Amino acid sequence: MKFNELGLKQEILTAIAEMGFETPSEIQAEVIPYLLNETGDVVGLAQTGTGKTAAFGLPILQTIDPNAKTTQALILSPTRELCVQIAGEVSKYAKNLPMHIVAVYGGEDIRKQLKEIDTTPQILVATPGRLIDLMERKKVHLENLNYLVLDEADEMLNMGFLDDINTILEKTPDTRRTLLFSATMPAEISKIAMNYMKEPVEISVGKKNEAAKNVEHYFVLTKQSTRYEVLKRLLDYYPDIYGIVFCRTRQETKDVAEKLMVDGYNADALHGDLSQAQRDSVMNKFRLRALQILVATDVAARGLDVNDLTHVIHYNLPDDRETYTHRSGRTGRVNKSGISIALVTPREKGAIKPIERAINHPFNQMEIPSGGMVCQKQLYYMVEKMQNLQPDKKIERFMPDVIELLKDMDRDDIIRRFIALQFNQLLEYYHNSTDLNASVQQEINSNKKRSSSDGKNRRGAYIEDDGFKKSRRQMRVADKGDTLRLKINRGKKDGFEPKRLLGLINDVTGDKSINIGDIDISPRFTFFDVDKKRVKQLLQAFAASPRAKGYIIGEVKGNR
Ligand code: ADP
Ligand code: MG
Questions:
Q1: CA-to-CA distance for 158 and 29, rounded, in angstroms?
Q2: What digits encode the pLDDT tens for the residues 407-432?
Q3: Are 491 and 526 in contact (CB under 8 A)?
Q4: In which element (H, E) is residue 166 found?
Q5: What separation in angstroms does the CA of 143 have from each of 73, 94, 175, 351?
Q6: Which of 33-37, 182-186, 313-317 has the lowest mean pLDDT?
């Protein structure tokens, strides 16, 4: 792709050639033609340094009228430095066009800026605060605005500009085209997009064309009667899931989605009985991640251009293998593996083998997370979220009073109570939760009794009770030749036992499919076998996870 294939004016092409640009960057190649040939709003997701300024700047220069002395494009940006940089960059692209481009930002004498905007700029680059100031002084007129760009939108939100942005957006004409650029897509941005953008297309680079799909395939065994219960358990176990739950029929899709919504999940349904407008609205919400869980039929999900899901869940397996491949191919992201989980009853388990052959990839059995594990996972998730949170500046003024009120409580007690506040409901729910693994096992056992000489049933021998233990089947699969011996710095003296080891590995890796076998516990160390292919994953998880703090794990040299 060359710049001159994008349909840009000669004046612009000359300017960018002089700047030494040869080929459009990825985001430019996608955004520029869209802005020139279509009319819709755009959410552009790309890291810094990928050329976003030209991606929106060039089409804006191409389409606004240099002879009309009105402000036709407004670019909002979080900082003074960025404003200056953007205005400078766009001015360079515009050097062969009669265009007045001005940057206004806080922290500098307003009089100089007032003078600059005395001649109405066609393109105004501004920080939100200063712009509002100028709007209140009636020095800026936005009624002829064709373009509104929110550049570095995530950064603007981090800096607390949300209210200002809303104020500004409300004062601009509905006919404007809104373009939002951001490196990340937090929920608040989805909200802006939903409130102020018209069915924006999401254009993100560095994700979608990733050819090598990195998908792990799992199945969980469930009873027919607990299928929904199991789904909920899985969703609870992955608090930051962004995924699709595939159902086989419209009715099932509706039922599952409705139940999830009633149960408080951020879910919605996509199926053929919806009107086009309803469908568009659901798809938009999901694309923008304002919706976490989409419950969909295969047909309805086909029109959905989203491929970077964290999870694909097959509430029921599809009839044909191509559909399975389609479904699971929607997960698997850059540098991160996607997870595909099929819910099957013992009776349906036979459907797995043919799929394994078709995709040339084995399935691992995943145990249904126990209530305890879900609570733990949610708790860690909450703590992590808390650590990454940027508290709103507005909280500051309440701080002295709150600190005064809490001054007699010690740190641990405060933490304990805040957790309880957030968590009581979940703990309550899971306190008496049934062991779903055990209940499916009972069913398998009773079936076995009924057809006592049926060897097939034994193949799936699956002995499980509390969700912390690995199934025996998995341990046997770990063939000696394919394992490595590892050791960890905990032993009998620390009260360590196999169950603790397996629980620890589950927690640290979040992955229950890693085969562990031959556990030996000495007074100070525990030795165990791990599937060779998974050793790296395990060691990396131990190196990275805060949950592995204090544990030292490593290979046993010279074998056993
Ligand atoms: P972003 O906004 O995505 O962080 P910028 O628009 O600031 O990125 O661009 C980063 C740098 O790359 C700038 O110096 C810009 O001049 C340069 N640049 C942009 N597009 C191209 C291109 N197609 N070829 C070469 N350099 C480019
Ligand atoms: Mg930029």
A1: 29
A2: 999 999 999 888 888 887 778 878 77
A3: yes
A4: helix 162-170
A5: 11, 23, 10, 61
A6: 182-186
- Whether the per-residue pLDDT at 479 is higher than 60: the answer is no
Strands, sheet with 73-76, edge to edge from the N-terminal-most edge strand: 101-104, 123-126, 73-76, 147-150, 177-182, 42-45, 201-204
Distance from C-alpha of 154 to C-alpha of 44, rounded to nearest angstrom? 12
Unique residue bearing structure tokens 């043919």: 354
Exposed/middle/buried for 388, CB within 10 Å: 0-12, 13-18, 19+?
exposed
Higher pLDDT, 225 or 478: 225
User: Range with the lowest mean pLDDT among 144-148, 403-407, 451-455, 498-502?
Assistant: 451-455
The answer to whether residues 242 and 313 touch, using CB atoms and an 8 Å cutoff, is no
- Pocket lining for ligand 1, CB < 6 angstroms: 21, 24-25, 28, 46, 48-54, 89
Q: Is the pLDDT of residue 301 over 90?
A: no
Angstrom CA distances, 87 to 9, 78, 132, 324, stand at 20, 13, 19, 49
Among all chains, which residue has been given the structure tokens 């309440």?
A: 398
Closest Cα to atom 22 of ligand 1: 21
Mutate to test the pocket of ligand 1, among 1, 8, 89, 155 (most ligand atoms within 8 A of CB): 89
∠ CA 258-263-268, nearest 5°, is 40
Provide the residue type at 201 as one letter: V
User: Which of the listed residues 21, 32, 154, 155 should we mutate to test ligand 1's pocket, taking the one with most ligand atoms within 8 A of CB?
Assistant: 21
SS3 493: helix
3-state secondary structure of 245: strand
Letter string b/e over residues 179-217, b meaning 16 or more CB atoms within 10 A of that residue's CB? bbbbeebeeebbebbeebbeebbbbbbeeeeeeeeebbb
Which amino acid residue places its CA nearest to atom 24 of ligand 1?
21
Q: Yes or no: say if 496 and 524 are a contact pair by the CB < 8 Å rule.
A: no
* pLDDT over 70 at 452, yes or no: no
Helix (H, G, I), strand (E, B) or coil at 503: helix
DSSP string for 39-91: ---EEEE--TTS-HHHHHHHHHHHHS-TTS-S--EEEE-SSHHHHHHHHHHHH
Sole residue written with tokens 């680059």? 125
Distance CA 132, CA 91 (A): 23
pLDDT at 114 over 50: yes
Ion ligand 2, residues whose Cβ is below 5 A away: 52
Tell whether the model's pLDDT for residue 434 goes beyond 60. Answer: yes
- Give 168 Cα–ligand 2 centroid separation in angstroms: 20
Look at residue 483 and give its three-state secondary structure: strand
**CA neighbor of 129 nearest in space, from 140, 145, 144:** 140
User: Which residue from 175, 182, 181 is spatially nearest to 198, judged by alpha carbons?
Assistant: 175
pTM to 2 decimals? 0.46
